[in-house]
């Protein structure tokens, strides 16, 4: 079954990196797809890619441009991103808009962990990509990919709203290329979950965060 | 100086009085209580190497406009200690914590000497010249909340005693707001002790976006340091950069042409309109009035269009340079700016109709979060916040720069000091900014837009302080040079730090829901606080 990554907002040939996405599709297609599951998948991906909800998260300058694409002139509601959620539990992707510092890094990691699968990370601006102008600082994480898996990078300092929209469309294409059933939403078994939870509790440091019964 | 014979006056740069540490407290008390220096403009911790660790204090007498700069230092590097002045100037509270965080100077008598920006488990003091960045890495664990406030006392034989006081009692109900919260305007964190919904105490945690700009500047050449100023308070990018350029030009003894002064002044005012529009949008959005958010951004885009045409940047313009501006104004600049002003004047009415007059906005803003004039001065809360409390603190009037002495504009002040006054100050300032631009836009003189400056700039030895009226208060630059091509110490007086230091005072007794309105009207930008 043929899969496509066309999104309605922009023509396929207008994107700059089609080889990359074709490569990705080829890998996905290699094993073939069941017709019924495949069709169901397409419907689900269509729905998901058209309603990606961002987390309201911004640390610095890029956050203002993030607000600008939420406002009337650039209006990302046209593409289904308008429902910015303040809670990570309800968000589909986190747009890391701004510098991430050492003090913020564990907090960001925690926010990411709190998001429900499937989840995506968009690194916005020079700081989130590589540390940007603050690369030599003693307190700046040089690239958010050191702590989170990043799906889309949007360069700029700060990126123009158009660039942000382009990046978000790339995320839409990525979502469309994925397989929801049996793929990204596999989840983990109950046993694995239990193991992870106990590992966390029995960690060497910070034991006193939890009570001894392990019920915390 | 008559009071303290052992102090020395030095003329390098702006001039500075060096006071020995033993008599510093006496001099400070005299300056505050008898000589009327009631406003601490800036407090900078500096590592002077063999001369020890110390601080530079910039003081102003708000009644007479007199200024003085003091410095004092302690030669013991491991146990550097200075007397605290937090009880003389409330603004010194967070500033001393900053100096402790940067340099490890113990302020004797300070009641709460925790680190301000860095985590409690941070090793070393980053602004010391012998700090090694490899001492610290990306932490993997979440930060432990430490509610003990350490304070240092000195005993008769010169040793220190560390005392700890709990910030919150065990039976207090403390909630955590931030660092990820949509109404904190960035990554600021509050710990709030509540009784019902009444705020009893508030503790601010900064540093989630501390980027170490001041340390980075020490290893950059002067033109390179300019780029970082735009990213401090990105809603005052023009003004911040203007301040640093002014400071370096002052140190070089360079007089820029009238054309440059005019362009810079107009750009500063456009930036101010942009910032105040964003202020109104965000305040309204935080309070649940989403429509004003769209209005603000609609009009703000018009300003950005004008800025972008000339500077090439929307938010970060990187426009001012040492001795000029990056490029001459666009041929359409004058026409577009005039068109914008005639567009904006009637549009402002729309904000007043929809938001200012709204009964919910009025009830939530009027009478909440009152900051008295004395407190505003003591905290150094400048900008719209200070003017709403009746303190005429506009740097454009106090220390005119650019061409502000040639234009006629009103300094908007209110006396109420509440959230509504802070909101109205900024709305009225948009009108004043438009008045200023109108007076200047037709008479931009001919001339060069960039003076001839060598690419490698070396400043003479000395120290300088320049300030501009940023979008949200006095933005100052303290520059200390030892004759090299990069600064020995470059400190940015944050406009936002005094604003968060007074938030505890003005929220006590307020409802927790008012915190959102108070935070919104204080109008701080977090990367500017944390630097």
Structural class of chain B: alpha+beta
Main-sheet strand order of chain B equals 1-2-5-4-3
What gyration radius of chain B follows from the Cα positions, in whole Å? Answer: 23 Å
Helix content of chain A: 40-55%
Number of strands of chain B: 17
- The total of helices of chain A stands at 8
Please describe the biggest sheet of chain A, giving its number of strands, its sense, and whether it closes into a barrel. 4 strands, parallel
Which overall shape of chain A is indicated by the principal axes computed on the Cα atoms? globular
Give the percentage of residues in beta strands of chain B.
15-25%
Q: What is the end-to-end distance of chain A?
A: 47 Å
Q: Give the helix tally of chain B.
A: 17
Q: Name the assembly state.
A: heterodimer
Which blocks of ≥5 consecutive residues of chain B have pLDDT under 50?
none
Average pLDDT over all residues of chain B? 87
Largest sheet of chain B: 5 strands, mixed
How many β strands of chain A by DSSP? 4
Q: How confident is the prediction overall: mean pLDDT of chain A?
A: 79
The ordered string of helix (H) and strand (E) elements of chain A is HHEHEHEHEHHH
Binned strand content of chain A? 5-15%
Query: What distance separates the N and C termini of chain B?
Result: 35 Å
SSE class of chain A: alpha/beta
Description:
- The complex is a heterodimer of chains A (216) and B (531).
- Chain A is an alpha/beta fold and 216 residues long.
- Helices cover 40% and strands 7% of the residues of chain A.
- Chain A has helices spanning 18-29, 35-49, 61-70, 105-114, 125-130, 161-177, 180-184, 190-201, and strands spanning 54-55, 93-97, 120-124, 152-154.
- Chain A has a four-stranded parallel sheet with strand order 1-2-3-4.
- In chain A, helix 2 (35-49) runs antiparallel to helix 6 (161-177) and helix 3 crosses helix 6 (161-177).
- The longest helix of chain A has 17 residues, at 161-177.
- The termini of chain A are far apart.
- In chain A, 38% of the residues are buried.
- With 531 residues, chain B is an alpha+beta fold.
- Chain B has a five-stranded mixed sheet.
- The longest helix of chain B is centred in the middle third of the chain and has 29 residues, at 258-286.
- Chain B contains 17 helices and 17 strands.
- In chain B, helix 6 (258-286) packs antiparallel against helix 7 (290-311), helix 7 (290-311) packs antiparallel against helix 8 and helix 8 packs antiparallel against helix 13 (419-441).
- At the A-B interface, helix 3 and helix 4 of A face helix 3 and helix 7 of B.
């Amino acid at each position: 079954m043929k899969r496509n990554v066309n999104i309605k907002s922009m023509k396929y040939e207008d994107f700059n990196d089609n080889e990359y996405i074709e490569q990705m599709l080829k890998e996905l297609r290699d094993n073939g797809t069941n017709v019924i599951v495949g069709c169901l998948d397409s419907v689900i991906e269509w729905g998901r890619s058209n309603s990606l909800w961002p987390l309201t998260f911004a640390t610095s300058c890029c956050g203002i441009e993030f607000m600008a694409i939420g406002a009337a002139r650039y209006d990302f509601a046209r593409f289904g991103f308008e429902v910015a959620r303040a809670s990570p539990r309800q968000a589909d992707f986190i747009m890391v808009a701004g510098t991430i510092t050492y003090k913020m890094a564990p907090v960001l990691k925690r926010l990411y962990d709190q998001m429900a699968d499937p989840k995506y990370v968009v690194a916005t601006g020079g700081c989130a990509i590589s540390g940007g102008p603050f690369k030599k600082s003693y307190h700046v994480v040089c690239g958010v990919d050191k702590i989170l898996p990043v799906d889309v990078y949007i360069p700029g300092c700060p990126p123009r709203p158009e660039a942000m929209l382009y990046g978000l469309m790339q995320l839409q294409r990525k979502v469309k290329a994925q397989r929801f059933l049996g793929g990204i939403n596999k989840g983990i078994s109950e046993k694995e979950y239990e193991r992870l939870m106990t590992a966390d509790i029995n960690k060497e440091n910070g034991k006193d965060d939890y009570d001894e019964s392990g019920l915390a | 100086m008559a009071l303290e014979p052992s102090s020395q006056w030095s003329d390098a740069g702006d001039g500075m009085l060096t006071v020995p540490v033993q008599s510093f407290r006496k001099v400070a008390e005299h300056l505050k209580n008898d000589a009327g220096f009631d406003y601490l403009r800036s407090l900078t911790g500096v590592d002077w190497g063999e001369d020890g660790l110390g601080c530079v204090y910039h003081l102003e007498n708000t009644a007479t406009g007199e200024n003085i700069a003091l410095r004092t230092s302690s030669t013991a590097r491991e146990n550097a200690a200075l007397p605290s002045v937090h009880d003389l100037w409330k603004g010194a509270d967070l500033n001393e914590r900053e100096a402790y965080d940067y340099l490890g100077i113990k302020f004797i008598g300070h009641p709460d000497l925790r680190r301000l920006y860095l985590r409690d488990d941070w090793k070393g003091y980053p602004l010391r010249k012998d700090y090694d960045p490899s001492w610290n890495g990306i932490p993997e664990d979440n930060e432990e909340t430490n509610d003990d406030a350490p304070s240092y006392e000195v005993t008769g034989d010169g040793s220190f005693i560390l005392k700890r006081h709990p910030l919150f009692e065990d039976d207090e109900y403390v909630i955590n707001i931030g660092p990820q919260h949509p109404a904190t305007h960035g990554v600021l964190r509050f710990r709030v002790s509540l009784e019902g919904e009444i705020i009893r105490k508030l503790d601010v945690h900064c540093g989630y976006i501390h980027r170490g700009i001041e340390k980075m500047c020490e290893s950059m050449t002067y033109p390179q340091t300019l780029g970082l100023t735009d990213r401090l308070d990105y809603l005052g990018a023009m003004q911040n950069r203007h301040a640093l350029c002014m400071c370096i030009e002052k140190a070089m003894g360079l007089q820029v042409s009238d054309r440059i002064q005019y362009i810079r002044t107009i750009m500063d005012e456009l930036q101010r309109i942009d910032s105040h529009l964003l202020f109104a949008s965000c305040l309204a959005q935080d309070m649940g009035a989403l429509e004003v958010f769209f209005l603000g951004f609609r009009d703000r885009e018009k300003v950005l269009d004008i800025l972008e045409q000339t500077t090439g940047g929307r938010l970060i313009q990187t426009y001012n340079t040492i001795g000029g501006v990056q490029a001459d104004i666009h041929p359409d600049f004058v026409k577009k700016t005039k068109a914008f002003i005639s567009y904006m004047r009637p549009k402002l009415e729309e904000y007043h109709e929809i938001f200012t007059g709204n009964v919910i906005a009025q009830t939530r803003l009027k009478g909440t979060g009152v900051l008295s004039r004395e407190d505003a001065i003591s905290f150094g809360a400048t900008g719209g916040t200070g003017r709403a409390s009746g303190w005429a603190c506009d740097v454009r009037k106090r220390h005119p720069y650019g061409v502000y002495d040639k234009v006629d504009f009103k300094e908007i002040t209110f006396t109420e000091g509440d959230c509504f006054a802070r909101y109205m100050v900024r709305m009225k300032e948009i009108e004043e900014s438009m008045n200023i631009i109108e007076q200047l836009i037709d008479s931009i003189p001919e001339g060069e837009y960039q003076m001839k400056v060598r690419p490698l700039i070396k400043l003479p030895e000395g120290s300088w302080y320049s300030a501009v009226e940023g979008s949200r208060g006095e933005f100052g630059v303290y520059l200390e040079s030892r004759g090299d091509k990069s600064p020995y110490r470059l400190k940015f007086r944050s406009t936002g730090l005094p604003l968060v230091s007074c938030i505890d005072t003005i929220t006590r007794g307020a409802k927790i829901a008012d915190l959102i309105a108070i935070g919104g009207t204080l109008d701080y930008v977090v990367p500017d606080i944390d630097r």
